[in-house]
Design the sequence.
């Protein structure tokens, strides 16, 4: 089974270099996979890193440059060049475990049905020093067991459970090429967020996608994060949510009035001050609540500034 590893990248040359080194050390025959990188308008030394990997000659590597257009456009372009029977979407900040490719292919060989897709596991890279914010970002159940961070939420998956479209994490996910189609990502999503959820939902609802979680297909997230990153991230998510709501109103991704009001109260200066005070008194016991409230403040800001999406 021939595999294509598809990586869109933008200004992450140092991490991309680590990713490529790890792909060179996979426990999978080098002749049985290719790596396609789409450089989405990087201005750092990405081209140098790609050329160095090509010179080492350990990967079937090809890459393409496009002006900065977003991950959806980049992945669609990469798919047009891909030759694999299976496409593995990998983030440019993911360092694959040596068995990652083998584990993806193994599940596809066991479940040969066209509609079967494989979700790999993502964990923080062991070299990173984790802070409270990073831990919150990958815990979608930190508030009342239901709400939390916005990066990954693997803790919600029970052993043997098949994930739904909400877990369509394109940082470590593989599908059969014939199932995907020629240009599956909606290129209207030109800002951060929702293009993967949109595709996952369409594949599940319209084509019967069955997502299988393989926790042995491990990728390590090499991306330090700070609380200061939250504002831009959540504002972009708030801006983009209008587009997915227009496409799939039944998902109710734009909150109703009562939910917006709750978010407004949570993200108010008075509430944030009160939560910070409680954290000082009780030793950061309410830190997760603080991050969640802050995220809703920025989400509402993005929701307001992204209103143009309603008329696209």
Sequence:
């Amino acid at each position: 089974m021939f595999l294509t590893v598809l990586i869109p990248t933008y200004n992450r040359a140092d991490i991309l270099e680590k990713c490529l080194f790890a792909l060179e050390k996979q426990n999978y025959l080098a002749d049985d996979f290719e790596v396609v990188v789409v450089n989405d308008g990087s201005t750092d030394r990405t081209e140098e890193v790609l050329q160095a990997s090509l010179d080492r000659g350990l990967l079937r590597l090809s890459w393409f440059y496009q002006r900065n257009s977003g991950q959806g456009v980049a992945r669609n372009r990469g798919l047009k060049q891909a030759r694999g029977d299976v496409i593995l979407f990998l983030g440019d900040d993911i360092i694959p475990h040596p068995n990652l490719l083998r584990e993806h292919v193994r599940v596809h060989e066991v479940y040969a049905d066209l509609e079967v897709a494989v979700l790999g596991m993502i964990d923080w890279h062991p070299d990173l020093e984790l802070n409270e914010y990073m831990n919150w970002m990958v815990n979608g159940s930190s508030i009342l067991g239901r709400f939390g961070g916005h990066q990954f939420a693997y803790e919600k998956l029970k052993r043997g459970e098949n994930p739904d479209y909400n877990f369509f994490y394109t940082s470590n996910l593989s599908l059969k090429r014939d199932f995907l189609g020629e240009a599956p990502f909606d290129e209207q999503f030109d800002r951060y967020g929702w293009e993967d959820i949109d595709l996952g939902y369409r594949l599940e609802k319209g084509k019967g996608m069955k997502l299988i979680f393989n926790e042995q297909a491990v990728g390590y997230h090499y991306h330090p994060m700070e609380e200061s990153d939250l504002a831009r991230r959540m504002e972009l998510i708030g801006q983009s949510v209008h587009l997915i709501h227009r496409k799939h109103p039944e998902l109710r991704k734009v909150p109703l009035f009562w939910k917006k009001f709750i978010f407004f109260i949570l993200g108010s200066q008075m509430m944030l001050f009160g939560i910070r005070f409680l954290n000082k008194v009780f030793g950061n016991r309410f830190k997760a609540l603080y991050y969640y409230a802050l995220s809703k403040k920025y989400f509402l800001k993005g929701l307001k500034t992204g209103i143009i999406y309603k008329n696209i």
